[in-house]
Structure formats: C-alpha cells, structure tokens
Design a protein that fits this description.
The protein is α/β, with parallel strands linked by helices. The chain has one domain: Rossmann fold, CATH 3.40.50. Helices cover 44% and strands 12% of the residues. The strands form three sheets. A seven-stranded parallel sheet has the order 3-2-1-4-5-6-10, with helices on both faces. Helix 7 links the parallel strand 5 and strand 6. The chain starts with a helix and ends in a 6-residue tail after the last helix. Bound molecules: nicotinamide-adenine-dinucleotide. The site of nicotinamide-adenine-dinucleotide has 27 residues, from helix 2 and helix 6.
C-alpha cells in the first residue's frame, strides 16, 4: 500500500458519491495519503450517515451537485482540474430501484456518461475509475464466479443500470480514449470496478443486511431477513476501496494497460457466506440478538452471486486482507464504538485507525488466518 500512497500524495482527486458510505471511507483514506480531494455528491444516503458520523466535511471539500445536471458537473470538473477521478455516485440500492426505476437508470447510466463526458473536456484528467457492481453481470444463478469477460445483464433496474454503466464506459474508451491512441490524441486511461457486497461501519442504507442488523440490535428487536440462503461476496469496504486505489494508481503509471473491467471480491470461496450465517455471526459478535425470516413475497433478487477475482489477483497483485469473519469483527467494532460514543471526532479517529490497521496488515496474512468453517 505504501507504493499506492505515494501515487496520491499531492494529487488532485475527484470523488463522486463522496458523502455516501464507500465514498466517505475513500475520501478519508485519500486524505490520509495526502491527496487534494474534491467530493461531489447529492443528498446524504441515510440518517444517520457515515459522512455525518465522522464529520467528513470538516476534512474533505464537498459540493452538492446532481450528476444528472451535466452543465454544473462539467463546470466543477473543469474548475477543479482533477488528475484522478473515482466515480461512485449512484442510486446504489436494488429495492429502491423498483420504486424509482427512471431515477435509478438516469443517475446510474446518464450520470456515468456525464462524468465521462466532463472528464473528456478536462485535459488534466489522466486516470478514471468507474465503480459499477457485481450485479452488472447477466446472472445465471450458477455456482461459479463471474469473470470480467462474461456478458453484462441484470433483472432489476439497479443491476441493469450498472450493466449499462459498464457499456457506456466501454463506449467512451473505444470512441474517445482508444488504447492505441494513448499518448497521441489523448492521455486518459479508464477502468471499471465491479465489487461485491461491501460491509463496514457507517452504512445505514435501506434494506441492506448489515444496516438492518445494526438497526434491530440497537432497538433490541428481531432482525428480519428476506433471503436467508442467498449467497453474496461479502467483503469489508476497505477491500474494494484498496482495489479502486490500486487501479487508479496503475492507470496513472501505466495508462491503458490496466484500462478494462476488474472484479474485487473474496478470493477464497470459504468467504462467500449465505445471509443467515452472516446474521448469526453478527448476533454472536454483538453479544445478543435474534432474527426471523420474512415469509412474504419479495421482489426478485439474485440468489447466487460470486465473482472470480483471478485477474485482479494475478495482474494487479490485489487480494483481500480480511476473511469475512474478520470483516464482520471490524464492522461490529465500528458500530459498537459509535453506540458507546457517537462523537464525530472520536468516530473519525476510529475510522482512520481501521484504515491504517487495514493498510498496514501484511498482505499474506489473509491466507494464513484460520478461516472459520462453523
Ligand atoms: N455498498 C455496496 O455494497 C456496493 C456494492 C457494489 C457496488 N456499489 C457501488 O458503489 C458505489 C457507492 O456505493 P455506496 O454504498 O457508498 O452508496 P451510498 O448510497 O451510500 O452513496 C451513494 C452516493 O451517491 C451520491 N448520489 C446519488 N445520486 C446522486 C446524484 N444524482 N448526483 C450526485 N450524487 C449522487 C449520494 O449523494 C451518495 O454520496 C455505488 O456506485 C454503488 O452502486 C456498492
């Protein structure tokens, strides 16, 4: 990680979705590395929110801009003159995408096009990481992990929007930032990142498993789960963020050699847990808690979803540092700290400490840990 650190020190970095769950963690990490960060975001995704929990706006310059408004967005990008852009802004949830399909499609597809277009007209930009999702792939409900060259697809509007954001990104690469013209007609390298279900302190998103658990544990009520046997590639948010940071740095250094799609998710299939097992572990870590399975009819969600991360492992040298059990420990510890003392300065320090602990963890340890198989 030290190598990556030096890539960002003193760099102008734009983060869209800066005031969301992952965006806040990313901005704090970039500030730790000495980057000059500007954040763009819309409304806070929840109350409470990670952004407010750590008073991130005291540390990171942020602007409230709707990425559907191309004119405003382009002006801000042109004024800031970023060298690196991380695009995370999105309507990031599956169930709300059924309630507002047009808003989701617009923000996630056209919003991505607007970010790329604004970058196209800003000569300072050299490295762009577009964050989509593991849900961008056509889901065949099979046990194998999806690879980067599997077809895009999706069922619900959110998943489709992320598949489309991938296609938009490919179109911009081929049409405006072609690899063969890099260094001649342009100097922009673009990659997309497809990560699995991120967990970590500070997520209060609606209908997400960990926030649902935390809300119930705080209220001393039963956790309601919808799909107990659904399998997801759970990982600490810092895992995928380390992948995004690695990618952004590689694009800066090597250009389009790394300009393609990348999966970031658990590598060890023993870390791909069903929902019910995650909930049981959280209850155990919290010290109490009960859960109940909702029997009502639920909107469609993929049942089996895992990613193959061989490419990121071999070509980027990325691999997860935490087992899913460790990620759940870190997550629970964060929410416990917040429950005991929600002072934002304290929680910012807790968060920075977790980032430093992750960044300083020796890389091979994840493999050496004895994975729990209960
Ligand atoms: N959290 C996960 O498990 C997960 C998994 C896979 C992919 N992702 C992707 O990672 C990214 C970040 O996810 P998150 O969990 O932090 O989401 P979040 O809901 O916590 O934050 C979303 C962010 O996007 C911003 N935003 C939403 N609409 C906007 C608009 N129209 N204009 C400008 N900003 C807007 C919000 O203000 C917020 O900053 C998203 O692209 C999401 O799809 C997340």
């Amino acid at each position: 990680m030290n190598e990556i650190c030096s890539s960002y020190s003193g760099r102008r970095v734009l983060v869209t979705g800066y005031n969301g769950f992952k965006g806040t963690w990313l901005c704090l990490w970039l500030k730790l590395m000495g980057a000059d960060v500007l954040g763009i975001g819309n409304d806070l995704p929840s109350t409470p929110s990670m952004n407010e929990a750590v008073a991130a706006d005291d540390l990171v310059r942020g602007m409230r801009i709707d990425i559907n408004d191309y004119t405003k967005l382009a002006q801000v990008v042109a004024d800031f003159k970023p060298e690196v852009v991380f695009h995370l802004a999105a309507q990031a949830l599956v169930r709300p995408s059924y309630e507002d399909p047009l808003g989701t499609l617009s923000t996630n597809i056209m919003g991505t096009a607007h970010v790329l277009e604004a970058c196209r007209h800003t000569p300072s930009v050299r490295s762009i990481v577009i964050v989509t999702s593991d849900k961008c792939y056509r889901n065949n409900e099979w046990v194998w992990g999806y690879r980067e060259n599997d077809p895009m697809g999706g069922h619900d509007p959110y998943s489709v929007s992320k598949g489309c954001a991938e296609l938009v990104t490919t179109s911009y690469i081929k049409s405006f930032f072609p690899h063969e013209k890099y260094g001649q007609t342009h100097h922009v390298a673009v990659a997309s990142a497809r990560a699995g279900n991120a967990i970590g302190g500070g997520d209060w998103g609606k209908d997400r498993l960990i926030p649902d658990c935390v809300r119930a544990l705080h209220a001393n009520t039963a956790i309601h789960i919808r799909y107990p046997t659904a399998v997801r590639p759970w990982q600490h948010a810092l895992e995928c963020l380390s992948g995004y940071l690695m990618l952004g740095a590689k694009l800066l250094e090597y250009g389009p050699k790394f300009g393609c799609g990348w999966n970031f998710a658990p590598i060890d299939m023993g870390d791909v847990w069903p929902v019910e097992r995650v909930v049981k572990r959280i209850c155990r870590l919290w010290g109490n808690g009960t859960y109940a399975v909702d029997k009502g009819v639920q909107p469609h969600e993929a049942h089996m979803l895992c990613l193959d991360c061989t490419k990121a492992n071999i070509e980027l040298g990325w691999r997860p540092r935490y087992t899913v059990a460790e990620a759940l420990e870190q997550t629970t510890a964060w929410y416990r700290a917040w429950a005991e003392n929600p002072d934002p300065a304290h929680m910012r320090q807790v968060t920075l400490d977790q980032i430093s602990a992750y960044a300083n963890k020796p890389e091979d340890n994840a493999q050496d840990e004895s994975h729990e198989r209960s």
